[in-house]
Amino acid sequence: MNKKFALVVGASGEIGNTICRSLADTGWSLYLHYANNKASVSTLINELEKLYPAQEFMLIQADMRESDSLEKMANSIFSLQSVVFAQGHSLYGGLEDTSLEDIRHLFQVHIEHPMFLLGKLTSKLRKNLYSSIVFVGSIWGETGASYEAAYSAVKGAQHAFVKAYAKEVATQRTTVNAVAPGFIDTKMNLHVEEEARRLILEEIPAGVFGTTQDVADAVDFLTSEKANYITGQIIRVNGGWYI
């Protein structure tokens, strides 16, 4: 049986970590990307190798702000059937207090360099009968968030890119989709004070915050053959918070 390989960009993050575990559990061999947190991804690889000895797990380092780093990253990847973009960081604060450098870094990490990287990887995806690209977007890319204007802008750009690129590569049987999480209980949301968390929870019809596993389950589906006819979609994982 031929192995199927997926690249998870941002494997060191909480959502990326869970995505790696879910994909490995459904038979994927993985390229696990990190920028700085090598220890976290190395620990994850050791765990996955013990659980799934028949699969392959490879470590890839690249700074998503550096185009030269991405060139090396693309050249180190051979067989590839899926790419998952789970990297990135939020930026909380008023726009008048946001520097141009902060804005540039957001766009580089979330949209500019992922687009550049895909340009280098699409020919490898094309070799498969079916392949997939999945972005972890955000609810704020659809509805916007005050004090997260720059972050909302880059996530909205991700969603727009998904819809456009899905049309561009549809004939090569590559699907392009995004998962748009709502409030996921991760370290990224630790800045939200307890009273604000309570008010947000009251707005979520499901009555609970999302988990990293909720996001990973959606990614797992979109990378599977069951989703071969689904493309250009933004799949909301938000408990009904925004419909």
Please provide a written account of the structure.
The structure is a single chain. With 243 residues, the chain is an alpha/beta fold. It has a single domain (4-237), classed as NAD(P)-binding Rossmann-like Domain (Rossmann fold), CATH 3.40.50.720. The protein is 44% helix and 16% strand. The protein is built from 8 helices and 7 strands, in the order βαβαβαβαβααβααβ. α2 (38-51) links the parallel β2 and β3 (57-61). α1 (14-25) packs across α8 (212-222) and α4 (100-125) packs parallel to α6. The longest helix has 26 residues, at 100-125. The radius of gyration is 17 Å and the shape is globular. The N and C termini lie far apart (41 Å). The model has no long low-confidence stretch (mean pLDDT 94).
Note the run of SSEs as H and E: EHEHEHEHEHHEHHE
Give me the secondary-structure category: alpha/beta
Q: Per the principal axes of the C-alpha atoms, what is the gross shape?
A: globular
Strand residue percentage: 15-25%
CATH homologous superfamily identity: NAD(P)-binding Rossmann-like Domain
N→C terminal distance: 41 Å
How many DSSP E strands? 7
Q: What's the arrangement of strands in the largest beta sheet?
A: 3-2-1-4-5-6-7
Helix content: 40-55%
What is the CATH fold-level name? Rossmann fold
Note the quaternary state here: single chain
How many distinct helices? 8
Task: Specify the biggest β-sheet.
Answer: 7 strands, parallel
**Cα-atom radius of gyration:** 17 Å
State the CATH class. Alpha Beta
Instruction: Tell me which CATH architecture applies here.
Output: 3-Layer(aba) Sandwich
Mean pLDDT equals 94
Number of domains: 1
Low-confidence parts lasting 5 or more residues at pLDDT below 50?
none
